[in-house]
UniProtKB/TrEMBL annotation:
It comes from the Eukaryota. It comes from Rotaria magnacalcarata. This is Transposase.
């Protein structure tokens, strides 16, 4: 990276987990709260499935229509079932 930009410093694993990821989570949470508060109706969808190796997964999504008439979908969680 020093060839591209000599002032660039690759962030450490510790700074990513203690600084960048919490800030990103706060930013995404703020955007989701704004999306929820700026719509009159929203729906939550739960979807479950298995892959070819019979591992089970589920996802929860939120769908809403904003004031401009655009359909928005947000993935709230995606997890494996054990």
């Amino acid at each position: 990276m020093k060839i591209v930009d000599q002032k660039f410093r690759v962030p450490s694993r510790r700074s990513i987990t203690s600084d960048y990821l919490p800030k990103l989570r706060q930013h995404i949470t703020k955007r989701l709260k704004h999306a929820c508060s700026s719509t009159d109706f929203l729906s939550l969808t739960f979807d479950g499935w298995t892959d070819r190796r019979m591992r089970a997964f589920y996802a929860v999504t939120m769908h809403c229509i904003d004031r401009m008439g655009q359909l928005n979908a947000h993935l709230l969680t995606f997890n494996s079932l054990s």
